Amino acid sequence: MIRACTNDQFVSISAIVNDAAEAYRGVIPPDRWKEPYMPDDVLAVEISRGVRFWGFEEDGELLGVMGIENVKDVTLIRHAYVRTARQNQGIGGALLSHLRGLTERPMLIGTWAAADWAVRFYQGYGFRVVIPVEKDRLLRTYWMVPERQIETSIVLACPRWES
Length: 163
Prior knowledge:
By secondary structure, the chain is an alpha+beta fold. Helix content is 34%, strand content 26%. Strands 1-2-3-4-5-7-6 form a seven-stranded mixed beta sheet, with helices on both faces. Helix 3 links the parallel strand 4 and strand 5. The protein starts with a strand and ends in a 6-residue tail after the last strand.
């Protein structure tokens, strides 16, 4: 079942994010890795800024989360994670498909350039990698990330996107 996450699921959201983010250890630049990957105070700020998390639950257990955030004229997919033990079972795809159905706006996704598995996942759902100069502009326009993250990230756009 997919449903909007509630405040009482904060601890579960944090646990899923930090469990699944272990895949980035040793892949993304070491200066971008943190321990934990997303501290609770950062997660709280993301939620307070408008990231709405949706969760995939099975037998009452939250197995995956994906955030959605409306920024200006687009919708961003933010913080998409599935528990490591439950990856590659369709949970991420179900969440992405559900969130795509929530908006008519163009959707953008930012991820680490070195996370080739994430890039392939989104491409499998019709998202395309934008050219580097467009990526830089989009990250500066729609995200609040440091320059180093802009250098080491990519942006994928849904088919509705027109640059």
